[in-house]
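input
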Amino acid sequence: MKKITNNIYYVGVNDRNKSLFEGLWPLPAGVSYNAYLIDDEKTCLIDTVEVDFFMPFIDNIRQVLGDRQLDYLVVNHMEPDHSGSLALIRKYYPEVQIIGNKKTFDMLSGFYKLTDGLMEVKNCDTLNLGTQQLQFVLTPMVHWPETMMTVCTPDNVLFSGDAFGCFGALNGAVVDSQMNCDDFWAEMDRYYSNIVGKYGTPVQMALKKLAGVKVDYICSTHGPVWHEHVTRVIAIYDRLSRYEAEPGLVICYGTMYGNTERAAEVIATAAAEAGVKNIVMHNVSKTHHSYIIRDVFRYQGLIVGAPTYNTGLYHEMNVLLDELSQKDIKGRYFGFFGSYGWASKAVAEINRWNEERLKFEQVGQPVEIRQSLTTETIAQCQALGQAMAERLKG
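output
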């Protein structure tokens, strides 16, 4: 339990054991499940935590409430890492009123069989707790259909659900002004691109709804409480949700025996010599795709290459392109290359992915390498790197 403002407390927990978030995304530094308690004339819990952490969670709540009752529980988001303790909270506080919107309650019944003691709210509805007043802002598809945010005045606190969150456990301090936040910025980009990335338009709509709201604290469900860096955090979400990218190049390649990797090196060297300073390279079989997706959100240029495998596209590249196509990323420049030993397929398959799903602007001519690099294909790789450099500079 940690105090944020006069009567708002952090009662969340850290998970340092889980290796993959949602069974998909690496957690090298863990993750926090954040919940908040308002101790006013009426008491109000904002979200809960994953059920495995219920005992330390309820202990945090009791440190604030003692023997008093919990009056309200606001559910901003129904994913089980935030709603998982709802049924147990109701057992400890049977009179608590659960606050959510209509879509929240559809899920509440399905997940936890909770159908009574509910208070439905609509967009801009308010609830007075005493000195603090809550206003509910519905933000559907950021990133589930029931998501909403809760504005608390006069302390100007935004309880934002998953929005503005990031990977990484909290190491003692909770508020950003009391910690070194350097490690959290890249993890915010990775969290957004992996979890929220597909829903740029709903995020933009949510930001417009919040445009006139004074925000001194952002209390997300993952990562630090933002106070000193509120402006920077909102700007990051605005940029990412508009798919705005920095000048730079991501080169992703798959390789079995090194020939495709050598081609990637030639392309990278040519792009660098032509003036591209920001170049990152990823072997799709070694780097977890979570980090590749983050970098594709960050940089405007993308060149991919892989060998033909079993008369199809190399498996890990196929998976990556499928993942990227699901993110609805816009405004990227795209080049590609491929190799084969006895049956040409990789280049055609990458081209199909782009024409049918990615729909990025193609730059330069694709390079197809038969067995190993030759003087001719080296020149073609150099031309591809140079073409991407010119497009990025243009």
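quick obs: Residues 12 and 57 are 6 Å apart (CA to CA).
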